Every structure is written in structure tokens, then in C-alpha cells.
């Protein structure tokens, strides 16, 4: 069996806006872009993957189409380890993280989708997991910047059955408003997106300590300041989470050795796909570090994250960006119900995108 084609697709999914629109870099966010890849084989089996897209999709797509895809043609899709090792080594000169690695992540996910289809097993079972129907999902709210916009979204998420909430805010007043809106019994996480110096982050954690946060996520700039994260963890009094910007299991191991984080957050569409993310689970568990993957995705990236989590012995939380779409190619498969998200039971990732919807939402149409 050989790979005959590697094709990229970019879609733009308009958000259903209720009240104020979420904000990105001071601008209203009205849609989310998703970068998909399809790997075809001469056996008639295809696999779907997703590389980190969002605002950087043009760079990831260029890397995929011009650098990664040509090296895949003619290779055996079943030899995932050998192919990914060769691709990593051939392209390391373009960087060990960033768009090339995001493109490699998409291919790796697609290869595992093919492996599951060939075996006739859902991916989580292929990875060694026992039967599991669903997993706890947490509502990961987008950034709003105003309490009047944030509080209704938290109330709405709770009404939908979510029992776990994360916000993307950095203003202490907004974080306090979020705690009031969520209530004392709801685990509340805060994703900061690397805004502060180490000293500022320590001070902010001390200010917020009374709110009983589940974790504070990526509080330090730059994200690779592991010593700084370790200091925030030691002095701030709040559990520290990080990892969506980490490019390999080796960097995660260094973070664990420095005791920099309480919660590891590998991102399957950024770190090298399922192959590398599962290694992070194994190393983290050996080091006694909790894993809750970053999953800001709505296609194969989300499905792969669900399967990775479902393959573990204990329940793992699944991040679900809290937003709705007018249309999406995966239908209800990406939607939690009552605070839990279904584990797909079909072979591979369990569901392929609807080609008609892909056509309607094509960003370059």
C-alpha cells in the first residue's frame, strides 16, 4: 500500500454570535478557520488530519503543500513510525516547531485514521483503551474583555450542562466576575496566553489565590521560560498548566525535570500528531504530572484529542472551545451533551467530514 496524494483544505466556519462577539487582538472574531488534510492511498482508504490553522493557516498550508506532501508520496501509510521519523529528520532545518511541525501533525493524524480504518477499530481502542462512550468536556470560552459579555456565556455553558469552565482573560476584575458567575463549586481555569513577566505572574497569582482556580495557564512570556514557570508554580499558590506551544516530548521532559507545571497540555495538531502526543502522556504519567490536552479544534484535531484521552485508563478532561457554528463538516460529533463529549465508535477517527459542507465553507472558494 502506498500514499498517492496529500491534499489540504481550508474552511472558514462563521460563528453564531449571541451578544458581544469574542475578541482577538482587539478585533471582533466572527469565524474560525480550520486546516484539514486528506491522505489518499492506492488501497482506496483515506485518512483525515488537521494542522494548527486559525490565523496562521496560510503558513501551515504552504509548508504542507510544498514541503511535507511531496515527501509522503509513494510511502507506506501503515509504517507510521518510520515515515514520521523520516519526515522529521528531513525537515528539521525548517524548525522543530511552527508551521512545518503543524503540517506534520496533520499528516500523522491522518495516518492514524487510516490505521484505525484498516484495523476496523476506533482509534482509542487501537491505542489500547478499553470500551468508553464519552468523556467530561470543559467549556473553553473565547476572550471577551468585558464582564457584561463574559458572564452570560458562563451562565449559558452551565445551563447546557457543563460542570467545568475555562476563560481566556487577564484582567483580575474579569476573573473575579467569572468566579462569581460560575459559582464556588465549579472548577474554573484561566488561560492567560503568555502575557506577563515572571514577577508579574507571581503577583497576579497571589492576587487571584482566593478564587480557588483549578489552574492558571501559560502565565509567562516567553512560553519556553521553564524556569520562570517553575518559579510561578512555587511562589504563586495556584497550579500551573502549559504545553500548547511545546514542540516535542523532549521539551516536556525538561519541563517536568524543572517541576515547571502541574498540568501538561500537548496540542495534537501542533506537536507532531498522535504519535508525539501519546509519548507525552506516557512520560507525564511516569513523572506524576497530570495531562489535559490543549484542543482548540473542531475537526480531526478534536477527534484525535478525544481518542487520545479515551485511550487512557482514567478519565481525562477534553477541552471544547465554547462556540457554535452556523455550519460545520462534522455535525453533532463535535458537540458535547450535558457536559460530556461522545467518543466516536467508528473505525479510525470515527467520522469523515461531509464533502458538501467542505465545499460550502471553503475559505478559498
What are the main properties of this structure?
18% strand; single chain; 14 strands; alpha/beta; 38% helix; 365 residues; globular; three-stranded antiparallel beta sheet
Fold and architecture overview:
There is one protein chain. The chain is 38% helix and 18% strand. It is built from 12 helices and 14 strands. The model has no long low-confidence stretch (mean pLDDT 97).
Brief characterization of the structure:
The chain has 365 residues and is of the alpha/beta class. It is built from 12 helices and 14 strands.
End-to-end separation in angstroms reads 33 Å
> What is the helix content?
25-40%
Count of helical stretches: 12
**Which structural class is indicated by helix and strand composition?**
alpha/beta
Order of helices and strands: EEEEEHHHHEHEHEHEHEHEHEHEEH
Please describe the topology of this protein.
Layout: E1 3-14, E2 23-24, E3 27-28, E4 31-41, E5 46-51, H1 57-72, H2 80-91, H3 99-119, H4 123-126, E6 134-141, H5 147-159, E7 165-167, H6 172-182, E8 188-191, H7 198-208, E9 215-217, H8 226-236, E10 240-242, H9 249-257, E11 263-264, H10 274-287, E12 290-291, H11 300-310, E13 318-322, E14 340-342, H12 355-361
Parallel strand pairs: 6-7, 6-13, 7-8, 8-9, 9-10, 10-11, 11-12
Antiparallel strand pairs: 1-4, 2-3, 4-5, 6-14
